[in-house]
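Q: Here's a chain of 192 amino acids. Please give me its 3D structure as tokens.
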Amino acid sequence: PLARAQPCLARPSAARPDPAPGAPAAAAAVADIRFIDGAAKTYRITTTLTLTAPVEIANATFKPDLGLAPQDLFFINSSNVTIGPKIIVDGLGLTFTPATGYPRCAFQTCLDAVPRTNIHFKDVEVKNWQFSGTNTGTPLGNLVVSHAFRVQYVTGGSVQDCRVRDISGCAVFMLECKNLSILRNDIYNAVW
């Protein structure tokens, strides 16, 4: 059975120790990054999750159950965010009423068009992200654009060691980014 998404206990990342007394402000800001371990469980997500603070999320499977309205799974409106390792987004069996002019994304950055820095996706798998309308089950029939990673307005980020399979859009769609690395990804059956 799938667990409902619920608030996770956040703790300072073990990889980012607390700064020493008198440390510069930048070091203190890095220590504010929270780590969320999904405990290798599966979470059914019924609405968009918006990340508005520095965070690292790892070790979880997300099954979107977003209903009929066009929605994305994750909005990332913060700097210093890392998604992964061991994150899976599986959209198997989902349908929805086609959006009018708006794509669905598993992950979208900076929806508010405010530039952010240091957003990374590492060891993330997005699969079965083919949303269809009235032609459910018909390959490529009436598919709406659905991107795995829509990375926009980001400086200093990466999509690396990720796997994208069976999507009806781009594996990685970039818009107004600087110093973004796309490394060692496996992409199969992306319609665009």
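Q: Can you summarize the key feature?
A: The CA atoms of residues 100 and 190 lie 21 Å apart.
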